[in-house]
Amino acid sequence: DAGVIQSPRHEVTEMGQEVTLRCKPISGHDYLFWYRQTMMRGLELLIYFNNNVPIDDSGMPEDRFSAKMPNASFSTLKIQPSEPRDSAVYFCASSLWGPKNTEAFFGQGTRLTVV
Amino acid sequence: AQKVTQAQTEISVVEKEDVTLDCVYETRDTTYYLFWYKQPPSGELVFLIRRNSFDEQNEISGRYSWNFQKSTSSFNFTITASQVVDSAVYFCALSEHTGTASKLTFGTGTRLQVTL
Q1: Distance, in angstroms, between A17 CA and closest chain B CA?
Q2: Which candidate, A45, A26, A42, places its Cα nearest to that of A34?
Q3: What is the percent of chain B with per-residue pLDDT over 90, rounded to a whole number?
């Protein structure tokens, strides 16, 4: 398996523009997570899905952020409009629920810079 | 609320030295999961180990070992005979026993620098 795939790896956009981050989870995994990493706040969970349904979006910072999972193999995180303080590395991760609750596997991240 | 504390911000060692990374956690749950992840300079997050709260056995994997002590709420990570390739940021993380063990609360990370 290719692992969790995120695109783009790097994104530079101007303030006010819409930005969409994409994620393809590991095939067969039923949980998908979006995390954000910043120097100030470290790694924090934004939202997670189970079987394509959003379960907990309490970490989404503002209404400017939205996430969707239209099918089991694709998810997007959208920021509209973007602001400089949204600059961060955004990670997508997936996992498989089971009796032993397996670990999350992370993608390589998308480094977002809003200028 | 859950909390993970990694008090060591940065550690520098010379190759072949042993090094221990500390992790202290707080949770009100009786069932939970603990993890260590490695973030090398390339930026990805690499899973190292998962520990269930009801399994206090220590674990060794090659040069890596983990010491889980519920009495002190600690889950420390030791690298024996460190190598330059071990240079990375290491994160300890905690998960409640919900439908998934992957809703993680991360510590702030410890940056390990191994030099020749």
Answers
A1: 25
A2: A45
A3: 73
